[in-house]
Amino acid sequence: MPAARESLLDAAFSALANRPWPGVRMVDVAAAAGVSRQTLYNEFGSKEGLSRALVRREADAYLAGVERVLATPAEGRERLTGLAEWTLSAARGNPLVRAMLTGCWGERLPAPTLSAVPSSSAVPAQRRADGPLPSPSDFVTLVRDRTVAALSGPGVTKLELLEIARSAELVVRLSLSCVAAPPGDGSVTDLVRTALPRQLR
């Protein structure tokens, strides 16, 4: 029941704006989503299952945004600049994305273990959520690999591929440093444009 699942995840995310995760009650999440508490447990199994599914959804949304930026018809430098802007915007606007990218969860947020947990769920989406969740270093690798795939094409040399991979990792790490310590003057855009090699496709 995908619609109920999304409504429950939306309700859980909204509840985080009002109270710390330990204070979020399953019965309140179900009521806010307009479904029974049994439906909630059928979908997620437990509060831990709900938290893992919520974190998985936000991780997937961040990575979908990465792919949208990389798919824009622009030169490589501009797409990497857009990637930095998206990463900073997503982390500033979503506490779960910020926690996933930095590893700093805090007591207000759910902090599911990153390793896989045993799953007996009949719901495919929950079985996926019960699998391993990405760590901050996993995100760097995932974004780097997506960038290499998006910016490489016919005629790209091995040396150019290495430069794209290095540039992508630099952009992600620079963006994350701006999440932790926002730049005083200018923006992440200026930092990225200065740091990237001018000959990048």
Structure described in brief:
By secondary structure, the protein is mostly helical. It has 10 helices and no strands.
Strand and helix map with partners:
Blueprint lengths: L1 H15 L9 H8 L3 H8 L2 H24 L5 H18 L1 H8 L21 H6 L6 H16 L6 H23 L7 H8 L6
> What does the main sheet amount to?
none
Helix content: 55-70%
The third-level CATH topology of the largest domain is Tetracycline Repressor, domain 2
The span between the termini is 44 Å
Which class of secondary structure composition applies to the elements? mainly alpha
Give average pLDDT, whole number: 90
Could you characterize the architecture of this molecule?
The chain is mainly alpha-helical. The protein folds into 2 domains: 1-44, Orthogonal Bundle (Arc Repressor Mutant, subunit A), CATH 1.10.10; 56-195, Tetracycline Repressor, domain 2 (Orthogonal Bundle), CATH 1.10.357. Helix content is 67%, strand content 0%. The protein is built from 10 helices and no strands. It has helices at 2-16, 26-33, 37-44, 47-70, 76-93, 95-102, 124-129, 136-151, 158-180, 188-195. The mean pLDDT is 90.
What descriptors fit this protein?
201 residues; Arc Repressor Mutant, subunit A; Tetracycline Repressor, domain 2; elongated
